[in-house]
Write a structure and sequence with these properties.
InterPro entries: PhoU, PhoU-like_sf, PhoU_dom
Strand content: under 5%
Main location: cytoplasm
CATH class: Mainly Alpha
Number of domains: 1
Order of helices and strands: HHHHHHH
Largest sheet: none
Number of helices: 7
Structural class: mainly alpha
Number of strands: 0
Helix content: over 70%
Family: Belongs to the PhoU family.
CATH superfamily: Phosphate transport system protein phou homolog 2, domain 2
Subunit structure: Homodimer.
Keywords: Cytoplasm, Phosphate transport, Transport
């Protein structure tokens, strides 16, 4: 019975890690599409999102089945709960990647607001590093590292603020940039929210290790 549970937990863990990689790749593709105005890549992000959605449903079903049929002990239950909660956030991150891709398509043939676009690229890099490090902290159950990583969200938030200020200034100076500036601000909001979800993952790593929920944001 215990060996069956361990096998199922390991499978759940692997499929969760795979979902994280799928989401990370989707975000990277969405921001590359935005940076290079690649409409084909943007559409690819949209088309592939269903795979992320399907994986989230699969993880949810497997998790509930494990809880109902295997009656896991406390430490195992914490891992299942962590995967349940974090996979839901991953699905939302995938949705934001799709929104970035759709915004990219709406911006075709538009002149870029260069300073804001450069800052958005910095935001994406900061988010990607934060996400990668948070996943590593999860895999190693490193709660101390998770706490440190969560503080990087402040940098993402500051960059989002800077993007908004640049866009607002540009829109005030040139009314023709209102539509584009609004789109850039939306992308910064999507990236900022993704940073919040990565922070949530850090909180679940702490829960996984310590058995208590800590607010790190």
């Amino acid at each position: 019975m215990r060996s069956d549970l361990e096998t199922e937990l390991n499978s759940l863990h692997v499929r969760f890690a795979e979902m994280a990689m799928m989401v990370r790749e989707s975000i990277q593709k969405a921001m590359t599409a935005f940076d290079k105005n690649d409409l084909i890549l943007a559409q690819q992000v949209i088309d592939e999102d269903q795979k992320i959605n399907n994986r989230e449903v699969d993880l949810e079903q497997r998790s509930f089945e494990l809880i109902a049929l295997q009656q896991p002990v406390t430490s195992d239950l914490r891992r299942i709960v962590t995967i349940l909660k974090a996979s839901s956030d991953f699905e939302r991150m995938g949705d934001h990647a799709v929104r970035i891709a759709r915004t990219t398509i709406s911006l075709q043939n538009k002149a870029p607001i260069v300073p804001a676009k450069q800052l958005l690229a910095q935001m994406a890099q900061a988010l990607d590093l934060m996400f990668s490090d948070a996943l590593d902290a999860y895999l190693k159950e490193n709660d101390q590292k998770a706490i440190v990583i969560s503080q990087q969200d402040h940098d993402v938030n500051q960059l989002a603020h800077d993007v908004d200020q640049i866009c607002i200034t540009e829109m005030k100076a040139n009314g023709k940039t209102v539509e584009d500036g609004t789109a850039y601000m939306l992308i910064s909001t999507y990236l900022e929210r993704m940073g919040d979800y990565v922070t949530n993952l850090c909180e679940w790593v702490v829960y996984l290790k310590r058995g208590k929920i800590s607010e790190l944001g």
